[in-house]
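Fold it.
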Amino acid sequence: MTLNHLNLTVNDIADASHFFQTYLGFKAADIKPNDALAVLNGPDGFILVLMHNRFNESGQHTYPDAFHIGFYLPDQSAVHQTWQQLHDGGIPLTASPRPIRKTYGFYFHYDNIMIEITTTSKA
C-alpha cells in the first residue's frame, strides 16, 4: 500500500500554495488556481491537497499540538540553506537548526501547521 496524498486545511489557499511551491519544492497540479482548493505535486510524486478552512464543517480549525509534517533533506547544509531561504523570505522562525534526537533540523509554524525540516546525515 502506498500513501497517496495528504489533505491539509489552511486559511489562505493562494498564500499556502505559494509557500509550498517556493520553499518546499512542490508544483501546482491544477491549472486554474482558486480560493477553495489547491493540488500540489511533491518532488517525489507525493500529492499535497490544500483545502480552505471553511470546509471544516464541525468548525475545527486547529491540529493537535504534536501534529506536524516533516521533510527530510540530504544533509545539514541543505537544512541550513532551507532555513536561510525561509528566513530571507520573512517566514517566522523561532529556532535555528540543531540536533533533535537522532536528526539535525528545526521546526516552525506556517499558517496552522507545524513543519519539521531535518536530516539524518551527520555532515
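The CA atoms of residues 5 and 46 lie 6 Å apart.
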